[in-house]
Amino acid sequence: MRGIKAIIFDWDGTLADSANLGLLAFQNAFAEMGVAFPRDLYEAHYSPNWYSIYEAMSLPRDKWGIADQLWLKHYGEQTAPLLNGAAETVLTLKRKGYRLGVVSSGSESRVRRELDLSRLAEAFAALICNEHIVNKKPHPEGLELALRRLNSKPDESVYVGDAAEDVQMGKRARVLTVGVRSNYPSSARLLSSNPDLYLESLNALVNYF
Fold first, then answer.
1. Domain ranges of the chain
2. pLDDT tens-digit profile of 180-198?
């Protein structure tokens, strides 16, 4: 881990305990549209690129925008807290001198709201969200943008996430990848993506950096 200067995190499932809230928002959004929402399909196809879920559910493409708005409406009725130990882990890394960032598939308004309500409101020098990119994970666009904002080279950087798409994005951006187990269905596929480091808990990150 020598030479690492920047550590960049995924948000949902990695720092924010949002798995149950996200599922409930999907269920409510599909119910409002009058569309079935089979739980087994959700768990099999969940991805940070949530359009994979829409495709698996055979949701017509002209309803994707409506589904997005309904999801935000229903999710916005609650706010996800940080996972246990997440704040302490991030703040410890900041005290050690690492430059920190977040690259999330979530909307900036929602992620920023959750950040502002947490102890990490001032922790990150870069926040890249869905609105800032064209290509979704595992495309490296968001991570490459974060590297530029942090003025960090790939071989000086780490990306920490809980989904296979996070690891794939990190590999495409040529950074060190850390996979962390979470409550999201996609976490079951995490090890198959061969992260450089796998952790059962985010709290263990400070043992390596």
1. 6-17+81-207, 19-75
2. 999 999 888 999 999 999 9
- CATH topology for 6-17+81-207 is Rossmann fold (3.40.50)
For 80-116, give one letter per residue: b (16+ CB within 10 A) or e: bebbeebbebbeebbeeebbbbbbbbbbeebbeebbe
CA 152 to CA 135: how far, in whole Å? 21
Residue 158's DSSP bridge partners are: 7, 176
In what order do the strands lie in the sheet containing 176-180? Answer: 126-128, 99-103, 6-9, 157-161, 176-180, 197-199
pLDDT tens by residue, 93-112: 999 999 999 999 999 999 99
